[in-house]
Amino acid sequence: MLTYNSTSTMPIKAPTKPVSIALSPTASSPMTAATPSLNSAAINGHKTQGQQHIWLVTGPAGCGKTTVAEYLAKSLGMPYVEGDAFHPPANIEKMANGIPLTDEDRWDWLTALREESINRLNAGSCGVVLTCSALKRKYRDVIRVAGYYDRRIQIHFVFLDAPEELLLARVTQRQNHYMGANMVHSQFDILERPLANEKDVITIDVSRPIEEVEQEALSNVLETMAKSQDKL
Length: 232
Fold this sequence. Notes:
This is Gluconokinase. With 232 residues, the protein is of the alpha/beta class. It has helices at residues 65-76, 89-96, 103-122, 137-144, 146-149, 164-173, 182-190, 210-230; strands at 42-43, 46-47, 52-58, 80-81, 127-131, 153-161, 201-205. The longest helix has 21 residues, at 210-230. The N and C termini lie far apart (39 Å).
C-alpha cells in the first residue's frame, strides 16, 4: 500500500513516438473519434503543438462527473477513463456498505488513475478525460505529479460544485450503483473545495440543467487549452 508521504514514485517515460489511434467515427462511444497524434493534434481549431492534457472531472457523488466527462471526451475526441472502474474490490465493498474510504484506501487508486492517464498519452493521444472525486487537495496533488515528469503534460481539474442537499437528492434517485446516499454526507465531511491558488482548477456550478453545465465546461476547457498554447 502506498502512502501519501512515500518517497517512491512510479517511473513515467515520456512518449517517444506519436501514434495516431484511428477509431470508428460512427460509433456512439466517447472513444469513437480518431485520436489526434502528438505532432499534428488540433482540438476545435486549437493546435496542441505536442502538448498533452489530462482533464479530471471531479466532485462528490451525484455531481454529474460521468455525464460531463463523457461529453467532454466525445467533444474533444479524447479517450475517456471512468475512475470508479479502478477502485479495488475492497474499496467498492466498503462504499457499498456505507463505510467511508480512508486516505490509505485511496492512494493506490489515485496512483492507478495517474498511471492509466500516462498510458493513454504514451499511446499517442493528445489528451485524456477521466473522472475522479479528488475530494482533498492532496488527492489532486497525486495526479499533478504526472506533470513533474514531462513538462508537455498539462494537468487540469473541472470541479463540479453543488449544495449537499441537491447531490443527496440525485444520489437517492440513482439505481444499481454501489455509492449509496449515505456516502454523500461522508464525502462532504472531508471535501476540500479548490482554493484560489489552485490555478489548474475550473469550478462549475452544477445546480443547473445539464446542458448548460456541459456547454460551460467545454467552453472553459477550450479556453484553457488556447491560453496554454499561447504561453509556448
